[in-house]
Structures are given as structure tokens and as C-alpha cells.
Design goal:
Distance between the termini: 54 Å
Shape: globular
Oligomer: single chain
Structural class: alpha/beta
Number of helices: 15
Order of helices and strands: HHHHHEHEHEHEHEEHEHHHEEHEEH
Strand content: 5-15%
Largest sheet: 7 strands, mixed
Strand order of the largest sheet: 1-7-6-5-4-2-3
């Protein structure tokens, strides 16, 4: 299996041709198939003797890949789509072929160097100090968990140093717009979640954070506050500066979840919405969402990386040779040890195209979003729930119920037009379009609205 021979050469070229065809042609919408349909088309693929490269590649290309939605389709508009650049996709092949384990500087100094330059660009967008840094995690879920672990570790060390001891319970303050991964992280960490209320504008503000901290149950200590820089459902950016004031007053860690929306800091037209973000102790931005990188790639950055290193460095006899604070080991900054060089395709594309191209591409998606809002406002049968803050359009079709939205969404996907799922806003069904692909046009949005 490991020797290179003529059959390997043939398989390599077949895979290269498939990948190149996928990159240079318009992405298909495709869609899910039932297990029975896939079984009838593909059958058993894991056998004692093997099926051979040509046969397995054909099964993937003809049946398995078409059973997956293409997140880079310009009308894939649910969840948060992906729109990787051609350069990043092609370089992902190189990363896989290079057999690099990007756990430590010792193993992967070159890729860590490259990843850190990409992280530095993110840190500069935020306005974090020169010493800021971190690593690329798998996604916002792992990035948020890792940041909160570092925040709690810092709080624990501070209490031990001043003799306060351990509280009965640790807690984190969030708003009702926080991503579901924060609740997940709290369950993993066995900490409580204290909900801070939001006002009519749906933003988390400093006074609500202060109130939530003051109202904490007896014996509970707040170690962190999570503000969101672009909520997934509506694109809301919290009052980060006000929240930062509250965190400073209370002496707690400020984590910013910018997994979706943080990329918009690259766009001058909305940069002001993130005022105060430079005061974060930690931050997550997912390049695989709105910075045009392949999955999976989340930038996790700390203002003071030494605090994260104290929380995350793993110790074992076989690991002692790599424990060295004079070099940069990505495994020291997240709940991770073995890791692929997931930030390198992002770095490659940034280096190839330059950061101005990224800013322009993000601006383009914002312009399409604003134009989509104008279309919604002009349609008497459609109700725009709120003016877009970033690149999410939330709206309702007057007179439709949940079942109607569901049927419309299925029909749209089955005929290959678009992927738009219903959501819930204020407990009522609604539709949500998220635009992060520079190839999505106003005509695409108009086509979808016309179908309503």
C-alpha cells in the first residue's frame, strides 16, 4: 500500500483531474440521499481484497459526492456557508500530501511559522497587542471551549494566589443570542451559564452583564463573559466596548465569539460595529466561514498567550522534549494535541491574493446583503424582520406557517435552486439567508424571493 508504482501514478492523476474539475466548474447544489438509495447505488465498500482506486473514486464521484450539499454553491444560504478560494482548496491537497503533524514547532516549524503569520493578520484586525497569538482549532466550538478553559484557569490561579479558595460553582455570563457551543462548553466544563438579558436591539450590553454578575447565586463566581461579534441567527454584534467595561470592573475574562461575524472586521464599512474588540482576552474567528478557507479552520487568538499556555500545555514523559516556551507549539493554546496544519491553506491564499482582496470580497457580500434588504422592503408580501447588521437577512412571508416554510425549503433544494432553511426568531418561524460567498449575486437573492 505504501510503495509508489504505476497504479499509484494513475490514481494520483485521476484524483488530480477530479479535484481540478471540481474547482474549475460551477459547484453543483446536489443534496442528501437516503441510506437505502446509497446502498443500492454503492453497496459495501470495505472488503477484504479491496475494490481498487478507480472503482472507489468512481463510487465517490458518481454517488457519494452528489449526496452532499456543496457549501460553496452561491445559493447555499443556510447555516453559515463556506466559499474557499481556489488557491486554498488546491493547497489543501499539498497539506494532505506532505504528511505534516502540526502539533509542535519541533515537528512542523515551517507550517507553524506560516500559520502564525495568518493569525497575526487576524490579531491585527482585532487590534490585539504585538504579543498576541494562539492556534488554529477545528471550529468555533473547540475554539470557544479552549478559550473558556484558559479563562477559568486564570481565575483559579488568581484565587489561589490571593487565598480566596475555590468557589462552590464557576459560571460564565452569556446572552440569549450566544452560540449553542457556549452551552456545550459549559456542560463539558461543568460550569453554570448565567443569562444576561438583551434589549430591543438584541445586543448584549455592559449593564446587563453587571446585573447578571450581581444576581449570581451565592457561592457562584463568574470567571468569564462571552460577547458575540455576529450572532449566527441574526448577525447581531454585541456592545463589545460596554461589555468590556463590565468585565474590567468585575475582573473577569472577556471572550469574543466572532466565529461567523468576526471576519467582517476586514470590511471598512462595518468595522465600527466592533468597537472595543481590542479589549478581548480571547477571540475566535472561523476562516472557513467568511474568510474563504476550506473546512476546518478556526483562528483562536489570545491577548496574552502565556495564560493559555499555562492552561493547555500537556505533560507526559514522551512530551517533555517539546515543552519549550522559547518556541511556538500550537498544542499549548487549545484543547488539542495531534493536529493537522489546518491554517496553512488559509495562509497560502492570504499570501497569494493579499489582504486587500479579502477586504474587497467581504465588502462585496455586505453590498449584496444590503441590496437584498432593499428587495425585501419593496415586496409587500415579505416582512424584513430587521435591517441587516452584517450579512444575514431574516424575514417572513406574510401568511405562511411553519409547514409552508418547510415545504418551500424542501422544494427549493430538490429542484436545485437553493438551500434555505427556516429558522425561529422570537419564537416564530422565519426565513434566514446568510451571504458569505462573493459569488452570490443580487439576482440569486431575487430568484429566491420570487419563489415566495
Amino acid at each position: 500500500m505504501h510503495e509508489f508504482d504505476e497504479s499509484t501514478d494513475d490514481l494520483a492523476w485521476a484524483i488530480f483531474r477530479y479535484a481540478l474539475d471540481r474547482v474549475r466548474t460551477d459547484p453543483p447544489m446536489d443534496g442528501p440521499r437516503s441510506h437505502q438509495e446509497l446502498w443500492e447505488a454503492v453497496g459495501q465498500t470495505i472488503t477484504e481484497e479491496g475494490l481498487g482506486g478507480e472503482s472507489v473514486l468512481a463510487a465517490f464521484a458518481d454517488h457519494l459526492a452528489p449526496a452532499c450539499l456543496s457549501t460553496d454553491h452561491p445559493r447555499f444560504l443556510s447555516f453559515v456557508p463556506g466559499a474557499p478560494t481556489n488557491a486554498s482548496v488546491l493547497f489543501d491537497l499539498v497539506v494532505g500530501a506532505s504528511a505534516m503533524c502540526a502539533t509542535s514547532w519541533l515537528e512542523a516549524a515551517g507550517t507553524v511559522y506560516a500559520e502564525n503569520q495568518a493569525l497575526r493578520w487576524v490579531a491585527d484586525l482585532v487590534g490585539l497587542p504585538e504579543g498576541a497569538g494562539g492556534c488554529f482549532a477545528s471550529g468555533g466550538t473547540m475554539g470557544n471551549l479552549s478559550a473558556l478553559v484558559a479563562g477559568r484557569d486564570q481565575a483559579m490561579r488568581r484565587r489561589e494566589a490571593d487565598g480566596s479558595g475555590r468557589p462552590v460553582r464557576w459560571a460564565v455570563v452569556v446572552s440569549d443570542g450566544a452560540h449553542s457551543s457556549i452551552d456545550s462548553a459549559a456542560r463539558v466544563m461543568d460550569v453554570d451559564v448565567l443569562l444576561a438579558t438583551t434589549g430591543d436591539d438584541r445586543r448584549l450590553r455592559g449593564e446587563a452583564v453587571r446585573a447578571a454578575i450581581a444576581a449570581r447565586p451565592e457561592g457562584t463566581e463568574v470567571f468569564a463573559v462571552v460577547a458575540t461579534a455576529g450572532t449566527t441567527n441574526l448577525g447581531i454584534v454585541d456592545d463589545i466596548d460596554g461589555v468590556a467595561d463590565a468585565c474590567t470592573s468585575a475582573g473577569v475574562w472577556l471572550h469574543i465569539d466572532g466565529a461567523y461575524g468576526g471576519a467582517a472586521m476586514a470590511a471598512p464599512s462595518v468595522r465600527h460595529r466592533f468597537d472595543g474588540i481590542q479589549r478581548a482576552d480571547s477571540l475566535v474567528v472561523d476562516p472557513h466561514k467568511w474568510l474563504f478557507s476550506p473546512f476546518d479552520c478556526a483562528a483562536l487568538v489570545y491577548a496574552d498567550p502565556s495564560l493559555a499556555r499555562a492552561a493547555h500545555t500537556q505533560h507526559a514523559g514522551y512530551l517533555e522534549p517539546i515543552i519549550d516556551d522559547t518556541v511556538w507549539n500550537p498544542c499549548d493554546y487549545a484543547n488539542v494535541l495531534t493536529r493537522r496544519a489546518r491554517g496553512v491553506p488559509f495562509w497560502f491564499s492570504l499570501a497569494v491574493h493579499g489582504t486587500r482582496a479579502y477586504s474587497e470580497a467581504v465588502e462585496r457580500t455586505l453590498e449584496v446583503t444590503r441590496a437584498g434588504a432593499v428587495l425585501l422592503d419593496a415586496a409587500p408580501h415579505l416582512d424584513l424582520i430587521m435591517d441587516p447588521v452584517l450579512s444575514v437577512l431574516a424575514f417572513r412571508r406574510i401568511g405562511l406557517e411553519q409547514a409552508d416554510y418547510d415545504a418551500w425549503s424542501v422544494r427549493l433544494m430538490e429542484d436545485g435552486t437553493a438551500f434555505v432553511l427556516p429558522t425561529q426568531v422570537d419564537g416564530e418561524p422565519a426565513l434566514r439567508i446568510c451571504i458569505v460567498n462573493p459569488l452570490t449575486t443580487v439576482d440569486d437573492i431575487d430568484m429566491i424571493l420570487d419563489s415566495l
